[in-house]
Amino acid sequence: MIIAKTITETRKIIAHAHTTGKSIGLVPTMGALHDGHLSLIRACRTQCDYTVVSIFVNPTQFGPNEDCDRYPRTFDADSAACEKLNVDLIFAPDTNEMYPQQNLTWIIPEKLGDHLCGASRPGFFRGVCTVVSKLFHIIQPDVAYFGRKDAQQLAVIRHMVADLNFPVEIRPIDTVREPDGLAMSSRNAYLTPEQRIQASCLYQALTLARDLITAGQKNPDTIIQALKKRIENQPDTKIDYISIVDNDLMHPVSTIDAPVTIALAVHLGPARLIDNIMVDPNSQKP
By the 8 A CB rule, do 56 and 92 touch? Predict the structure, then answer.
C-alpha cells in the first residue's frame, strides 16, 4: 500500500495504473474510518482493479461554529485498516495541498443543496461538491463509492457528475448500522454512554415511518408528527429537521404515492446525527 500526500505524486501513481489497464475505484473519506467506510472499501476492492481511499478533513464544508477542529483524526488506525483490506493507495493531503491559495471558484448545487442539511449548514454542499470535484480530477476514478446514509449528499454528487459530464460512475452502498439500528458515523464518538443509548431513537423513528407508510398512511405531516413525538421522548435530543422527500431532488412531497426518502437530522448532546431510509408505499415488504 502506498500513502501519497501530494497531488503530483498521486497523479503519477494513478497514471501508471491507468497505463496498465486497471480500473480505478475511489472511496472519498474524511478519515475516522468505521465499518460503514470499510463496507465501501470492500465493495471497491471487489469491483475495481485498483482501490484508492482519500483521507482529508475538508475545511470548506464546515461552518464557522462547526466541529472541523475537533473532528476525529485517527490516521494511524485508518491506514492500518486500509492496509488490512489491501487498499492500493491512500491519498492523504493536508489543507495547503488541496487549497494552496484562496479559492475563487466553487461548485454550487442548485435546488438540491438549499434544504435539509443545506438549510442548517449553509455552504456545506458548496464545500462537498468542490472537494469531490477536486478528488475526481486528481484521481480520475472510473467508479466512486458513497454511502446511502448521506442521502442528500449522494443525490447532489450524482447530479453534479451528470451535469458536469464527469466520466465516473457513482455507486451507492447501503448504510451500515449498529445492532440497535444506529447508523455508523464518525460523530457517534462524541456521544456519552447515556446519549449513545438515546441515539437508537433515530432508527426507531424511521422504522415507525416505514410501518405507517406500508400500512397505508399517505399524509407526510401525520407521519412527521409521529416521528417528532418518538424522538422528543429522549431528553438530550433536539430535532434539526424531519422531512419526507422524493428520491431525486430530495424535495418534500405533499402525499406519499411513490417511493420516498424519510430523512432526519437530530442534535444529541454535542453530535449532529443524520439518517434516512427509503420506502416504497406500493411495496408490501417491510
Answer: yes
Please indicate whether residue 37 is annotated as part of the active site. yes
Kind of pairing between the strands at 260-268 and 271-279: antiparallel
CB atoms closer than 10 angstroms to residue 272: 19
CATH of domain 186-279: 3.30.1300.10
Which cell is 80 given?
492500518
The string of pLDDT tens digits covering residues 222-256 is 999 999 999 999 999 999 999 999 999 999 999 99
Give the per-residue pLDDT at 29. 98
Q: What is the mean pLDDT of the chain?
A: 96
- In the chain, what are the domain boundaries? 2-173, 186-279
Residue among 16, 18, 34, 37 flagged as catalytic: 37
Model pLDDT for residues 66-91, shown as the tens digit of each residue = 989 999 999 999 999 999 999 999 99
Q: Which fold has domain 2-173?
A: Rossmann fold (3.40.50)
Enter the C-alpha cell of residue 243.
422531512
What's the whole-number mean pLDDT along residues 154-158?
Answer: 98
